[in-house]
UniProtKB/TrEMBL annotation:
PANTHER family: SENSOR HISTIDINE KINASE YPDA, SENSOR PROTEIN KINASE HPTS. One of its GO terms (cellular component) is plasma membrane. Keywords: ATP-binding, Cell membrane, Kinase, Membrane, Nucleotide-binding, Phosphoprotein, Transferase, Transmembrane, Transmembrane helix, Two-component regulatory system. It is found in: Cell membrane. Residues 309-361 form the HAMP domain. It comes from the Bacteria. CDD domains: HAMP (cd06225). Pfam families: HAMP, His_kinase. It is a multi-pass membrane protein. Gene3D superfamilies: HAMP domain in histidine kinase, Histidine kinase-like ATPase, C-terminal domain, PAS domain. The chain crosses the membrane at residues 7-27, 285-311. This is Two-component system, sensor histidine kinase YesM.
Length: 569
């Protein structure tokens, strides 16, 4: 594909994709902002509406007790309807009518008197004639309430019923009511006196929920502790069990729940908001932006065609010249007579091409010389320390032993010197261990048999190659910094093994402790001698970051050096 076609596609993408991505981004951000705002607002409104419901129901639950405590009412509840005089009954009815008239949300009251098995209905502050009710205790609600510890229950909403078939309740009555049933007992004796059933108009709850029902696309449900719907604007849902699957449809609806307290413990106030309605404004704005985007795209296509045809021709010509360099030909004429940016680019590319050719060889050779010089310098720092200690050891032995011991030491020294001449070479681990054993033998002659040095290297890695003189400084450091300064007998252990394709060498010096402050300085290479620094530097030069070098203080018991070297054939 030519650069002209690529530029054409690129410019199209730069116009279309960013624009529509921005539309999608703005739309999604608007949705998130709207959802967060609606969530915060709805949660607050749910809390307020829940408190209003709790206060309202609490008031309705407590209201009948003021009626029961009236002397006129209490007398009739204790003695029954049939035994009271006309005056007492008239006073009773006046109190009941006044009670019902003061609360317009009370649609109907029904008294059931245990004394004479009678019932009395009050409809819109009108009192009916008494009706016999010998089997009212057969009602499951009353039977359950009679044996319960609670003094009241809240029933399931239903259409108002004319339970006692009294004339004051019209046949056309179809008001939805919320029944509240109270058990009436004597305050002093605790004797059961009967029941009061209060039918509260369900619509009286609507003003309490107005804050959360006025929004379009919103459904509010009041669900009791048994999972039945106690309030809904859809009458067909009242009294039915809530389908939890409806609340799980998070793709279509935004669902919020508020747990209610006394006297509605276990009840939930649920607000279901349609996301389709909630995000309608944001969606309309997005579609408007999309339509505008198509107009922008049409204009952009015209611009792309002009740009791709007028400005890409010299770039294509320059590209064809650059392709000739792919075969390794560095002498290509890229300069043109153009005086614009493309002409300057071609001239700079020509200069760069000429410089690259000359720099490649020079930089490559310089790097090799620098590395060789670094290796020679590092190795030269190690040998003087070794020779000094070796000569000192031989001198000490010469002062206290015969020629045969001196001869053995000289043999070991010669082997070590021959090995040391292999500077900067890769040698088998076996040869490095032989060098260490010779060095330890010299030190054993110097310090006597009280030293404890152990070398435990697995046989399978002894033929692997490592840089010469890599492990010897670890042993030397033990004698220099630990053995000579230890107040009690110390020991040195060098272990070697293979793990996960690596050679792992672990040198532990037990004796002189290393505190955490000095350990940090050693890790930063701000303390210590040349030995540890040389090891770290040689690992870096030979393995270019593939090897690892770690220091530890063995929890104050000594010093540990761990080296990880890649296993190479």
């Amino acid at each position: 594909m030519s650069i002209r076609n690529r530029l054409f596609i690129m410019l199209l993408v730069m116009i279309i994709l960013p624009y529509f991505l921005s539309v999608i981004f703005i739309y999604e951000n608007s949705k998130s902002a709207i959802e967060e705002r609606d969530l915060a607002k709805s949660r607050e409104e749910l809390r307020e509406s829940g408190k209003n419901l709790e206060h309202y129901i609490e008031g309705m639950v407590q209201l009948p007790y003021s009626l029961f405590n009236m002397p006129e009412v209490q007398r009739v509840l204790e003695n029954g309807l049939l035994t009271e005089s006309t005056n007492h009954m008239q006073a009773f009815e006046n109190r009941v009518e006044t009670y019902a008239a003061t609360r317009p949300d009370i649609r109907q009251l029904r008294f059931y008197f245990e004394k004479d098995q009678q019932s009395l209905t009050v409809y819109k502050a009108n009192v009916s004639a008494p009706k016999p009710a010998p089997d009212y205790m057969e009602n499951p609600t009353f039977r359950s309430l009679y044996s319960a510890q609670n003094a009241y229950t809240l029933g399931v909403p239903h259409v108002l019923k004319n339970e006692d078939n009294v004339a004051i309740v019209p046949a056309s009555e179809d008001t939805m009511v919320l029944p509240m049933n109270h058990k009436i007992t004597d305050v002093l004796s605790g004797d059961f006196l009967g029941f009061l059933s209060t039918d509260v108009e369900l619509s009286s709850l609507a003003p309490l929920l107005d804050a959360i029902t006025k929004e379009a696309g919103t459904q509010v449900l009041l669900v009791n502790d048994s999972g039945r719907i106690m309030y809904s604007e859809e009458k067909k849902l009242l009294g039915k069990r809530l389908q939890e699957e409806q609340l799980k449809s998070v793709e279509k609806n935004l669902v919020l729940k508020e747990e209610l307290g006394e006297p509605l413990t276990g009840w939930r106030l649920i607000k279901i908001t349609s996301k389709d309605v909630l995000f309608r404004d944001a969606r309309d704005a997005a579609w408007t932006s999309v339509l505008l985007g198509f107009g922008v795209v049409a204009l952009g296509i015209v611009l792309v065609i002009v740009v791709s045809r007028v400005f890409t021709k010299p770039i294509i010509q320059l590209s064809e010249k650059v392709r000739s360099i792919e075969g390794g030909q560095m002498h290509v004429e890229l300069r043109t007579d153009r005086q614009d940016e493309i002409g300057h680019l071609a001239a700079h590319m020509q200069d760069m091409l000429n410089r690259v050719d000359s720099h490649i060889e020079r930089e490559y050779k310089l790097e090799l010389e620098v590395r060789e010089s670094q290796l020679r310098m590092l190795k030269s720092q190690v040998n003087p320390h070794f020779l000094f200690n070796a000569i000192q050891s031989i001198g000490a032995v010469a002062l206290r032993s015969g020629d045969r011991d001196v001869y053995k030491l000289l043999v070991s020294l010669s082997k070590m010197m021959r090995y040391a001449l292999q500077a900067d070479q890769l040698v088998p681990v076996r040869e490095e261990l032989a060098y260490i054993n010779s060095y330890v033998m010299l030190q054993r002659e110097r310090f006597g048999s009280g030293m404890h040095v152990a070398v435990e290297v697995e046989e399978k890695i002894q033929d692997c190659r490592i840089p010469s003189m890599l492990l010897q400084p670890l042993v030397e450091n033990y004698f220099k910094h630990s053995f000579e300064h230890a107040q009690q007998a110390g020991r040195f252990v060098l272990k070697g093994s293979e793990s996960n394709g690596e050679m792992v060498f672990q040198a532990r010096s037990y004796g002189v402790p290393v505190n955490i402050e000095r350990l940090q300085l050693l890790r930063k290479q701000e303390a210590g001698g040349t030995g540890l620094r040389n090891i770290a530097e040689r690992l870096r030069l030979h393995y270019d970051g593939e090897a690892a070098f770690h220091l530890d203080n063995l929890n104050g018991e000594g010093f540990e050096v761990t080296i990880h070297i890649p296993h190479r054939d």
